[in-house]
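Example 3.
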Amino acid sequence: MSPSLTFVLGGARSGKSAHAEAIVARLAPPWIYIATADAWDDEMAERIALHRARRGAGWQTRDAPHDLAGALGGLPPGQPVLVDCLTLWLSNRLLAGADVAAESAALVEALAAHDGPVVAVSNEVGLGIVPDNALARRFRDAQGRLNQMVAARAGTVLFMVAGLPMLVKGSPP
Amino acid sequence: MSPSLTFVLGGARSGKSAHAEAIVARLAPPWIYIATADAWDDEMAERIALHRARRGAGWQTRDAPHDLAGALGGLPPGQPVLVDCLTLWLSNRLLAGADVAAESAALVEALAAHDGPVVAVSNEVGLGIVPDNALARRFRDAQGRLNQMVAARAGTVLFMVAGLPMLVKGSPP
Amino acid sequence: MSPSLTFVLGGARSGKSAHAEAIVARLAPPWIYIATADAWDDEMAERIALHRARRGAGWQTRDAPHDLAGALGGLPPGQPVLVDCLTLWLSNRLLAGADVAAESAALVEALAAHDGPVVAVSNEVGLGIVPDNALARRFRDAQGRLNQMVAARAGTVLFMVAGLPMLVKGSPP
């Protein structure tokens, strides 16, 4: 287990990103923000812009829509890191035809290996009706497995409900 | 924060309405039930009838499928109020082409402004796979934002799981 | 209430089965595994094979994709039982045209009646957007009602999040 790894899990619009940013911003700056979004359409570009606008000074943004483990490996030690989010990374990799099981395992090692606090954000997507299409089912399975692996390694796991954290594991960050 | 506001959040068929009614029914009657359902098809009409049948004497029902803030503003002080539910109201307003962000903010003020206990029921809808169609995504976003605003103002927030309340914020009502 | 009944509820790929198996495997063997899956396609057959491979010696497997209450009624007293899962059983019965409300009530009685520890696994499916098709909505409603009934009878209810149990009712098993 990696005590310095905090996992913030929740649904869409559950306040995951804002809560994760608040956790990191209580630590000494500068803070590293690793963004995994690909700005491939207007809807996504708008969300990225909103997230950037909410973050203020003190943040260093790095884009890693695909090589997230590599981006984590190249960080200076000691600095707090926010990874937002594992769901977009997984979606990018699945659509790129990657072996997401192997890459998920490598990513969890990279999250745990950073020498400093890491807060990782991810979506819970398995609490609705079984999706009609096979790709959505594959994504749901891969996301659930990745979430389990990260949660097993994290020192603290939070489940966000309507902007409020429920403590699933560890002590409040 | 409004200590007299209780927020009961959960999935479909999670026992939200029954639990919210039980909370209100522990207070002195008469109780005001604000219904937001539009009986626009047989499936909905059946659900409304089932909910009405479960409530007994002591309840005064008011219908407010659209002007929910207005209905809250016109209530006599001191009486316990159940609002069931914010999800149907939001759906009605979104389909009517309203500015749901502005109306959500006004609704939260109205919920907090009532001079007496208020229990508000809402659905969590963001824990499944991203919906295919854009309207469903807009609804999901608007619902998540409304839920966050209500939860931030509420003194008590409950997340219903299989008919059982999990305490997210505050003390058990 | 039946103190010997434990209910493990969660989303897809939330670690429900593994956690439920671990609870049962802390008790004295032999353990009875009641499987409800119908191996009606390759995807399901693969999942069944994976689940079987994870379980080791000490497990006696019985298949009950339809007559789950009957299978529970025919068990020798005292032996720990794992039922995995109620969701597949409900899906099988709904597709067979059964009266799932009546059968759900009978199933809950059978779960509570076994003379020995019972761990039942089920999916929460109501936390996404309302499904487009009527059958999926009927399933979602039936699943929610069944989950509420089981949770009301169980001595312990766990909600799985990313492989980790959140205690909803009772004491940790």
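Residues 134-153 of chain C form the longest helix (20 residues). The helical segments of chain C are 16-25, 42-54, 68-73, 86-95, 100-113, 134-153.
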